[in-house]
Structures are given as structure tokens and as C-alpha cells.
Write a structure and sequence with these properties.
GO terms for molecular function: DNA binding. This protein is mostly helical. The chain is built from nine helices and five strands, in the order ββββαβαααααααα. It has one domain.
Amino acid sequence: MSGARTDPTSNEVVDVGVFVSRPRKPTIDSKSSISGVTAEVVAPVSIIRNNASSLSSHSPRYLASLSLSPPSEPVKASSQSSYYARSPYRPDVPADRRVLLWTTPHSKNVQQALDSEIPPHLQVKIFRCLLDSVSYSTRHSYGIGLLRFTQFCDREHISEESRMPASGVLLSAFIVDASGSYSSECIRNWIEGLRFWHMLNRAEWHGDDPLVLLLTKSANKGSGTRNL
């Protein structure tokens, strides 16, 4: 079949140009191991496979995500592990769509409030405008930061309810966990992505906590720092 291949994990024929996520055995570290999926960008995405998601195909978030254009060049998968725990709050979508389509229990409450105030088509317009306010590369970078935050929360057994709004203490713990391995520039970008994620979900943001600001500033004082 031209332009298609069989997914070996499900015997399902899928288009080559779509985002594919398949189960993969995680690397077990000294902290813990979790059961999840590995996110893999195969090529520019034209279709979102929204499997096992808490979002329906008629939700304003999902419809807004369809308006996003794929990148002009294929995106190379990161060399860093992209493994994360399965959850209906985190559908298998490309990195640049995570800030919109990865949700929390808080997101569901906000969605109910939006539904009571304005019709879905206006919600779609709001989400589209917010997404258009940042470039593809910025959204992609934010998505990587959200993945790292998710991996951290999974590993440390942080509840879904505690991930948004993320407290200043939780953000501080995330920063110090990454310090010494990543540069302050990289960590600041991740924190900015979490701020944007909170804004999209109308969640209170605690990233202006003096402790968070100080730790972010001093995050790269460890050895072996790198950017991602």
C-alpha cells in the first residue's frame, strides 16, 4: 500500500506521515520504573490520533489543535528518553500540541465553566489565538518541558490534582531535580512552558515565588549541564 505501513504493535495500517506512539520497555533507574508509552515524532503531522484521551473529537481543544500547521521540516526525535506513564489526561500527540491537549483534573473543571459561559466555536477561536501567539518551535520546546515535568511527577508519584496548579514547592523541586544536568536557560524555558500551560488552563501560577526564581537563576551551577 503506497504511503502506508503496518504498525507491528497492533497490526494496524497507519499513514507514514502521522505521529506514532508505541509501548516500549522503560529504562529502570535508581529512583523507580513506570508503565507508560514512548513518544516518537516520525514526520510532520497531519493527523492526530487521540487514543485513550479524556478529550473527545468534538472538544474545543481538539478542534483548535487541527488548525495547527505541521512543521516545514521533519522533527528529529530527542535523544533523551521520552517515556511517560499512560494517562487519559495525556493523549499521544506531537510535542507542540501538548500544552493544549495534555490536561489535568483542573482542566476539566475549567472546561465546565467555559461551557457554561460561551459556546464551543468561540472557545475554539480563543484557543487558536493563544496557540498562534507563539511559534511552532516555541510550542515544541514547551512540549518537551511539559514532558520532563510529567516524567518528574510520575517518578515522584505526584498526584494528578497536584500538578495543576503546580505549587511553588513542586516547581522548586522540579528545578532542583533538573539542576546539574541541564542549563539554566533550558530550565527557564521549561518553566516558561509550564506557565503557558497554566495560562491555557486558567490555573493560578506560582512560578513567581521568590524560591522558584532564585532556584531557576542558580540552576546551572552544577556540573555537566546541557541544553535540550
